[in-house]
Amino acid sequence: MKSAYFYPLQNLRGDYIRALSGASICVAPLVLSISEGGGVTGGLLLLPFFAALFLLYFANTLVKQLSSVAIDDRGISISGFRARKIRWDQLVELKLSYFTTWRGGENGWMQLRLKTPAGVLRLSSALIGFEHIVRVALRSAALRNIALDDVTLKNLNELGLADQAPPPGSVIA
């Protein structure tokens, strides 16, 4: 049975706002300086570089929104601009990481990293169906006796999937 998932706009809205705000903050001083005839000198020379980084972040978010993720018994695939596919029987590593920009650790996101000899696939928790995908990937890792690191085990616990994971330092049997 094949399941399809996507990144909804409401889950990516903050990324779009950060990208456009950052680019605007970088471009505004340039426009003011040039319009006043001052030219671009000193620290202003770095602003186009930072504006480009924010625009790349915007483009990455757009690519994510236009992509869809399909999962079945054989593997997982991403369609869209950066199409990729991995097979479950080639899985060699599963990592579940948590990232936050807040000091207290709240308001963060998770990232599932699936590695095969052919490459790496990363999925963000902004994806609808993320927990189901983690559950299926965990089952595949168990079938392949893939060891999970302590950070992954802790994050599985946060998702409520700790009962499906092995004790720390052990190999899934």
What would you say this structure looks like, in words?
This protein has 173 residues and is α+β, with helices and mostly antiparallel strands. It folds into two domains: 3-65; 81-164, no CATH class. Helices cover 40% and strands 22% of the residues. It has helices spanning 9-35, 47-66, 130-143, 150-158; strands at residues 3-6, 68-71, 75-79, 84-87, 93-99, 109-116, 119-124. The strands form two sheets. Strands 1-2-3-4 form a four-stranded antiparallel β-sheet. The chain has a three-stranded antiparallel β-sheet with strand order 5-6-7. The radius of gyration is 20 Å and the shape is elongated.
Outline the low-pLDDT stretches: 167-173
Strand content: 15-25%
Mean pLDDT: 86
Number of strands: 7
Structural class: alpha+beta
Secondary-structure element order, as H and E?
EHHEEEEEEHH
Helical residue percent band? 40-55%
Outline, from the CA principal axes?
elongated
Largest sheet: 4 strands, antiparallel
Number of domains: 2
How much is the radius of gyration in Å?
20 Å
Number of helices: 4
Termini separation (Å)? 25 Å
Strand order of the largest sheet: 1-2-3-4
